[in-house]
Amino acid sequence: MKEVDCMIDVNQVTGGYSNEPIIKDVSLNVLKYEFFGIIGPNGSGKTTLAKLLSALLPVQTGAIQLAGRPLSEYAPKELARLMAVLPQHSSQTFSYTVYETVSLGRYAHQKGFFNSFTQEDEEIVQDVMRQTGVVDYQHAKLDELSGGERQRVYLAQALAQKPAILLLDEPTNHLDLAYQKDLLDVLKRWTLENKLTVISIFHDLNLAGLYCDRLLLLKNGQNIICDKPDEVLKKERLECVYGTKIEKNPHPKVPKPQIMLVPEQLSRAIEPEEIGPHLLKHIDDMIWLQTPTPMKTMSSSVTGAGLGWYRHFVNRHVDKGYDCSDHRAEMKRYLIEKGLDPNDTAGMMTAVHLEQAASGLFEGDGFSVFVMVTAGVGNALDVTQGEQHVKAYTPGTINTWVLVNGDMRDESFIQAIVTATEAKTKALREMAVMDQLTGNVATGTSTDSILIAATQKGTVLEFAGPIAPLGQVVARGVYECTIQALKNDRNWRHDS
Q1: Is residue 268 part of a domain?
Q2: Which letter does DSSP use for residue 340 in this model?
């Protein structure tokens, strides 16, 4: 690392209160224009480290350098021009106006007191008030503002110092979601646009993971790891440091990790009711299965697509001429009319008559799989020749449900989809289902849908490839049910 890239260098620092060390032999560096987060459980030394970095506490052993100079060489006012500190603020306020409070941030740059307030100072104060969103109430009293608004004012005051380093102690504490996001968005923007280095203490691991470039994890005053969020926020590491069970998942919109707590009463190994054919109901124009507890689900359904948790599973029959400009919205209306919550339902559509459905419960070693298939092949096609099919000329659709009584890992969901698809394709070949346009053996239809769901209780099922125990059962179940559903379809068309 080039020395010029390093804004703060902490080398084997020990320090605390009186002779009692809280921080013990900690080393780290903070790069220029970096958003750096400090995390750790209560009592781990986060605030003590911040006080050592801002010279509020003396270093007992080791050394701290700021911008290439020893921290001990900085006079208080010189340090204030380099580093601004935004501590935790209580509800206690004073009767200053917003403008007066922000203006105090220029003190470190003044030679006298307020009589030396310059035009440059005024421009800076107005600029930071605009950028932090407090300019519209600059004449209001501080004690008239909400907690989120006051925190913005204090941030504007710190930024008015025009520091190279901004040090914050839990800046989002007691703020609602909107204020948390707005405040951190401002800080992140300043690191990118105003060459500001931000160091912040976080209790919220998800916010730390979202906004920070790197994280320092402390425990008992010691450096556990300092690295990128995805590396620091490892499931096993956090469970060890924080002493609680968690799950780690990727954020759905940005490449950042998100940490989920697992409530004790939900993490216990409770034996659920087995999901099977006894729960399947044929009501009017839908097949409906309601589970006792939500199942973790990955699907291409009309409602409930993607990854989620659902208790209701619906396969709905629609007429051959069904045409709707917004089939998702229409499906939601349909479910509501049936008394089902669209947010708790994975719902599919098919032009196949529901009497043709084939289903079965297939046993594995310590787990079982319930499979349900409806299969119509009027729009069967060879997937490699899809461009020749401008539209589905005859209604069809193979809808496949795979409901697992077991605890599946994320990769096994994906593998189960692959295994089920390969089993379906094998069944189509064996039944000699053809792509009528190209004359090739069909691999599916143009509107197939699949759903994999698991109770997440019982036997842990890490894999679902073709030779894994779960994969073997899924393949057998989907193959047999698809074969039977195809036979049912042929018999139906023959009888019709």
Answers
A1: no
A2: -
Residues 305-311: contacts with CB within 8 Å, 24+ apart?
307/413, 308/346, 310/344, 310/345, 310/346, 310/453, 311/344, 311/345
3-state secondary structure of 15: strand
Tell me the whole-structure pTM to 2 decimals. 0.80
What's the rounded Cα separation, in Å, for the pair 292 and 476? 26
438 φ, ψ to 5°?
Answer: -105, -15
Domain limits for position 366: 277-495
Residue 371 in domain: yes
Instruction: Give the β-pairing of 197-201 and 165-169.
Output: parallel
Count Cβ atoms within 10 A of the Cβ of residue 190 and give its class: 0-12 exposed, 13-18 middle, 19 or more buried. buried
Average pLDDT over residues 187-211: 94
Is residue 132 domain-shared with residue 225, that is, in the same domain? yes
| Angle in degrees, 0-180, between the axes of helices 177-193 and 147-160, rounded to the nearest 10 | 10
Instruction: Answer for the pair 299, 346: CB distance below 8 angstroms, yes or no.
Output: yes
Q: Quick one: average pLDDT of 289-297?
A: 95
Long-range CB pairs of 68-73, under 8 A, 24+ apart, other chains included: 68/3, 68/6
CATH number at residue 340: 3.60.70
Give the count of domains, the chain.
2
Q: Three-class SS of residue 200?
A: strand
C-alpha 103/C-alpha 248 separation (Å) is 43
Question: How many C-beta atoms lie closer than 10 Å to residue 449's C-beta?
Answer: 22
CA distance 238 to 219: 11
pLDDT of 38-70, one tens digit each?
999 999 999 999 999 999 999 999 999 999 999
CB 479 within 8 A of CB 466: no
Among 247-256, 280-289, 476-485, the range scoring the smallest mean pLDDT is 247-256
Cα distances (Å, whole numbers) of residue 294 to 270, 308, 383, 453, 473: 13, 9, 33, 9, 22
